[in-house]
Amino acid sequence: xxxxxxxxxxxxxxxxxxxxxxxxxxxxxxxxxxxxxxxxxxxxxxxxxxxxxxxxxxxxxxxxxxxxxxxxxxxxxxxxxxxxxxxxxxxxxxxxxxxxxxxxxxxxxxxxxxxxxxxxxxxxxxxxxxxxxxxxxxxxxxxxxxxxxxxxxxxxxxxxxxxxxxxxxxxxxxxxxxxxxxxxxxxxxxxxxxxxxxxxxxxxxxxxxxxxxxxxxxxxxxxxxxxxxxxxxxxxxxxxxxxxxxxxxxxxxxxxxxxxxxxxxxxxxxxxxxxxxxxxxxxxxxxxxxxxxxxxxxxxxxxxxxxxxxxxxxxxxxxxxxxxxxxxxxxxxxxxxxxxxxxxxxxxxxxxxxxxxxxxxxxxxxxxxxxxxxxxxxxxxxxxxxxxxxxxxxxxxxxxxxxxxxxxxx
Length: 410
Known about the structure:
- Keywords: Membrane, Signal, Transmembrane, Transmembrane helix.
- Residues 1-30 form the signal peptide.
- By secondary structure, this protein is mainly alpha-helical.
- 69% of the residues lie in helices and 2% in strands.
- The chain has a two-stranded antiparallel ribbon with strand order 1-2.
- The longest helix is centred in the first third of the chain and has 43 residues, at 77-119.
- The protein is globular, with a radius of gyration of 23 Å.
- The protein starts with a helix and ends with a strand.
């Protein structure tokens, strides 16, 4: 009875409506007071030049030189935390909105990918099979769980990247760290948090791969007290989150600071889209094998107690397959090529589209949020000055030895 009640709460459409309205309402508060020339134009925000040349400002390496102009009045740990929290909100909410848009528009691709991860068929074979067994609704199986998971996951990804980096850059013990260490810490935070979301992820993945019958089998095990099946693949998920998050943001940050690329593509959103595309290819190629293992282990957890699978009897245990057995299933069916290559081409294509959507919306909202929250940032920083110069509104800049505006770390 308790399980049935909890499922009704999770599946309630009103919960989804409230979640999306919260994200959209919060973002509208940051964009509704824009200048007349860009009113309602999310794709081309009117921004100061130093914001345009700094698509990802949070992971620029801080190497002070005698010519640096850096604010060092932030020494209190509580103030550092408040500034990091303000920065995390600036990056996280746009990420949540972008994640929701991704789910609504492109989830059918993610369903095909997860099916390929489990069964190793081609894109067309998987798409045809899924469509013939339920039509469009089958391709959107697990949409409720995805709408909850995606905004939360993206919120943590962007908040970790922006918030953790700001915290580290203002901490005397870590202010000299480069972008590599900063992104590594952010990736660890993301991996740990996503472990808490595993029950949602497992339910969504099982629905995508096996449909309603697989979900019912999974719930049967939960009703018998085997709650651990909801955390199937948690370790692989944490590892894939880390090795996927790290190269994505590191590549993104590296390319965003490339002056030659800025000169080559002066249009901010076009440049962000290209950078997002390249970043997704790097991330997907590195982390794909862990996602294949994680997805297979989750799908095997939905097997009935009396069912056999391709590699021995791994469905007979209430807790499902071990990692060794999951890998054995993959190798027995497709060999090493299947382990490293299942669904990779489709994932690169899908993530290229999703990274473009996410990047454009995320950076557009994040930059607008940043532009509208300068006064609040100054309050967090304890700055009571009444500067009128545009650059003085943004404290915590990194400057190079020539005094040029190189990077903003407010």
